[in-house]
Amino acid sequence: QEKSSRLSAALFGEDCEISHDQLYELFKYAALGRCHSATQPSWCRIYHQSHLAGVVVIVVQEMSQLHFYKFYLQFKHLRKVFRHRFTLTPSANFLASLYGEGANLKPQNTAQGLTSTSSECIPKSSDLQCDPIIRKYGEKKRGLTSYTLTLEEQKKNDYPIKGSPGCKGYIYTECDQQRTDSSPLFGLDCEMCLTAKGNEVTRVSLVDAQGQCLLNELVKPESTVVNYRTRFSGITKKMLLPVKTRLPDIQTRLKKMLPHDAVLVGHSLNADLQALEMIHPSVIDTSLLFARNEGRRFKLKFLAKAVLGKEIQCEQKLGHDPAEDARAALELAQFFIEQGPAKVAELNLEMLLTTEKLAEVSQNKAALQPQGCRVQKQLNEPPHLSKPCFLDCLQVTGQKPLLLGRQELDSSGLCQSNLSTSNKQILQRALEDVPLSTFSIIQFSLGPEYVASHLLAGLFEKVRSKLTDMLTIYAGPFEESFCLKSVKKEFGRCGPIQSLTVVTETYQPYVCIQYEVLEAAQLAVESLNGAEVAGSCIKVQRPVTAAMLDCDVLIKELELDVENESVIYVAGLKKSLTETDLQEEFSQLKGLETLFLPKDLQTGKHRNCCFLKFQKSQSAVDALEVINGWTMKGSKLRSRNALASGHLWRWIWQMNHSNGKQGGNIFYAKMEQLSDSEQDLRKKVKKLDQHIKKLYRSLQNNTLCVVLFPGVN
Which residue ranges does the record assign to the RRM domain (predicted)? Predict the structure, then answer.
C-alpha cells in the first residue's frame, strides 16, 4: 500500500491472479526503475517510481489465502490498509522464485539468532566523501547544466573550440541559446577509419532523449583509406563503395537537426567532434562525468553493464554499433542527472571493475586447463540458472537489500530454518534495520506445528462450509401447489443461482437456494424477506449454525473492505447483454472506472450480474441511488454494495467447484485437536496482524509495501 507514489493495478474480478514472474517484474521496477533494463510491470503500473523511498516485502511463512479468509476478522489492519489483493500462483520453491534464481545471499548470524542479509559492496558514508564523483560534484542532485563541460574543461580535453587555431574551417552548430535544466539532450557517436589525412568519419549516429535514432548514416572519407578498423568500426570497403554522402552533407544535416539549446552527450565526445570537424558549445562527456582518480576513465561498455545492466559492443557483433553507443551514453547521462552523484557513488564502480577483471582472469585460467578437468568441474557444479538474481541487480546499483527472518537461502536455493528466533525479535530488528535499506524482505512465521496436512484440510473444510452457508438462503413457507418457476425467476433477479431445491421435511414447503456470489444471497435476504412471492408472504434467512453466528459482522466488514469501498453489485441483467452493451448503458454514471461481467470460468458464459468500479467511493454511493429500480431492456435492476468484487470472487468460485470435502476421515477424527489448534492459531494471527501494523506504521512515506502469503504448496 503506497502512501504517495501510486500503484495502479487494473486487475478486477476473475483476473486477480498473478504469477511469480509478474511479481518479480513489480519488485525489479520498483527498486531499480530504469536501471538494468527494468520496465513497467506488464500487469500494473507504478507512478513516480523515482519518488519511492523503498520497497518492503513482508512474507508470512506457512500462511495462504485460506488462512486470510478463515481469520478475516482477525486481520483488522491487513484488510483495511492493503487495497490491492491477488492470488499468487503456486511455486515449487517460493523463496528462490521470489528472489531470483541463483541468489547470492550471505546470512550474518546475529546475537539474537536472526538471519540478516545485506549488501557487502555498499561503501560507507565516510568512504563516499573520498569518492572522486562526490569530490567533483558534491552529494546533492543537480540539473543537467551542472554537468556540461566548462570552456576550460573543453580546452583541457581537446574539444574543438570556436576561434581556436587548430579548428580553422570547422563548422559551428550555431546552437547559442542559453541552456537550462530542461534543454534537450542528444546522444552522438561516430565510427572512424584511418586515412592518409588521419581519422575520418565513416558512420554517424544521433539519438534523441527518448532513444529514438534520428540519424544513422554511412559517410565516404575524402582521403584514401589506410585502415578500415573493421574490428572496431564494423566498416568494410564493400560497405562504402556505393556511398555518396560526404562530410559536408552530414555537417549540414546535423546543423539543421539540432535545436538552438541542444546539449550533445557522448563518451569521449571530443574525438567525435574532431572527426566531424564541428564545434558545439554545450556537451556532456560520460567518460568525464563518471569521474575516476588520477585522470583514468571507465570504458563505455563497462558503464553500460554496471549502471544500466545493458550489454553493448558484444564480441559476436562485427564492430561497434554507433547508434547503440550513442543511446548508452545518453542513458548514462540521464541516469546520473536523475539519481544524483550520491547514488552514482554508491554504485562503487571501482570495486565492480576490479571484480569484473578478477572474473576475467579466472575465466582465462579455466580456459587454459585440460578439457577433462573443465568437464569434471562442470559436472560437480550446480546447473547455471539463466534468470538474473534480483538482489544481485540491487547490489550492482548501490541499493541495500535486507533479508530478515527465520529462514535463509543456502547455495542451492533451499530454505534453512532458524527456529530459535521469535516473530517479536524479527519485528524489533526490522524496526531498526528497514529504515537503513531500500529493499527489505521481512519473514514472519506461523511455525511448523500449524502446517500438518490434517490441520490444513480441517481449515479448508471449515472455510468452504462457511462460504457455502453464506451463499445459501432458505425461503418460505409456500403453498403446497406453489409455482417453483416463478420463485426461481424472482430469486434469480438477485443474481446467478448455483442450485435450487425444495425442502419437504417442514409442515409447509420451503426452498433452499445456493447462489454463486455473496452479494446475491445478501440481496435476497435484504429485498425479499417479508415480500410476497408466488402468492405467499415469505421469510428469507440464512442457515443457522455456530459458524454463522458472526455472519452479519462479517458481511458488514466485507462491505467496508478497501477492495470493495468504491464498487457496487448490479443484478437483474438480461444474459443477452454484452459487456459493450452494459458499458454503453452505464456510461452516464459519474466517475465509472471499469466494469466486470462475471462468467463461468469453465464454460465462459456470462452471468446476469455485474460489478461497477468507481474512481471515488462517493460516486459508488450516488450510483446506487440511481440504479435501484432502474429498468434496462425491460428488466428491473437491483443493486447493493459489493462484498466480493475482486480477489474473493474468484476464490469463492473455486471453493464452490472444489471436489467436496478435502479432509475426509482424517478431518473428523482430528476435530478436537483442530479446535484447540484453531484457538492458538487465531491468537497467533491476531499477533501477526499487529506486528505488520507496527512495521507498516514505521515506514517512510512513499514506501511500497507488499505482504505475501506463500502457503506450504
Answer: 471-545, 566-644
